[in-house]
Structures are given as structure tokens and as C-alpha cells.
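name: query_chain
kind: protein
chains: 1
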Amino acid sequence: MPTTKTVTYQLDGADRDGLLVLGEAAGSAPTVLVFHDWGGRSESQEGFAHRLAEMGYHAFGVDIYGKRGGTPEQNQALMGPLLEDRALLRRLLLETVEVVAALPEVDSGALAAIGFCFGGLCVLDLARAGGAVKGVASFHGLFTPPGLPTVTPIRAKIAAYHGWADPMVKPDTVVALGEELTAAGADWQLHGFGGALHAFMVEGANMPSMGVQYDETTAKRAWAYLELFLREVLGR
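structure:
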């Protein structure tokens, strides 16, 4: 079974509590950063970190906010300021990578990042910013560009797993992402899943009237694609 430890670190001068989940590899190992959704660090995020550790990677459950939401209103109050200040978000993302890369258990030359919903936006922004990761994967993420200069060519390989029926990311936004990444010289791939709504990876998500719904079949397919992607970018 994977072992875990809480890692208290600072972002922008304030404490955060991340979760390091160690796979079976001895010493430093390829590590995947796991970025949370709009509600902050969550059990769902930690579950994905454990699944990565069972695949042989180390995983780090990122804490961007330093606190957790509960209601949609609380979650929006946490996410909203960072969506409005993408320069601040970019700084937090790059600081996070530096923190994780410095951990003794981590192979700093073999980092990747995945994220869900807001976290999906985070990993795309991390790639745009030239963060020191080999690849990023966005699950039902937000695609809106940050309005900041992109470090080109984008070095990190990019995968996006998108529910085609997600009302938060319309098809024209998906096409725009492909055009943006092509112009930035990225190695990118995008998987669209017919009928899937927002949060298709999150067990228990069940608000179809708001376009939010867990989808077991889509979740299995997307994770299988992730396994292939991580083997490609991390070499194992």
C-alpha cells in the first residue's frame, strides 16, 4: 500500500498543506502533481494521488488555496480571485513546482501534472508558463487562456480529456485551445467524450441540471488514456 505524509509548504508567503503519496519505488522517483478542483484539496484528489502511487509513481496532492470550500458559494469565492488574476495564479503554480521538485523523494527531472476542473485550467496554465514538467493532463478543465505571454515553444506535452456535452466549455472553446496550442508549438492531444458532462471523473458528482455528472465509463476511458500518456512523458 502507498504511504503518505503531509507536507506543509508556503505559497506567496502563506502556509499550504500538500499530501505526498509514495509509490513502491525506492529513493527519488517520477512524480505527478495532482491539482484540485474549485473546492480545494479534496478526498477525490487524494484518491487520484493514491491511484498514481499504485501505478508506481509518487504523487503530490497540491493545495493552491490553503483552505477548503464546501458550498458552491464558498468554492466560487476561493476560485474567483485566481481566475481574475491569472498572473497571481501563474506565480503560485510555478512556486508549487519548485516546492515539489525540492522534496528528497522526488525526481525533479521527471515531473508531470494532472488537474480536474479548476485544476485542469491550472495545469494548462503551468504548461503555458514554461513550468518544469514533462507533461500535463487536464480532466474536464477550463480552457480559457490567461491573457499572459506564453513561453514558446511549449515544452510540456499536453493532453486534455473533455466531456463534449460540458456546458462550461463549448466546442468553439475546444477548437480555440487546439489552435492556441498549435500556434505555441506544443505537442498536444485532445480526447472528446460524447455525452459526458462536466466533472465526469468525480464520483458522487450528480447535478445534471447544472451540467455536472460523474460518468463511470468515460472516467475509465480517460484514466486509461492517462496511463499511456504518463508512460510516454515519464518513461515508465
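note: The chain is about 35% helix and 25% strand.
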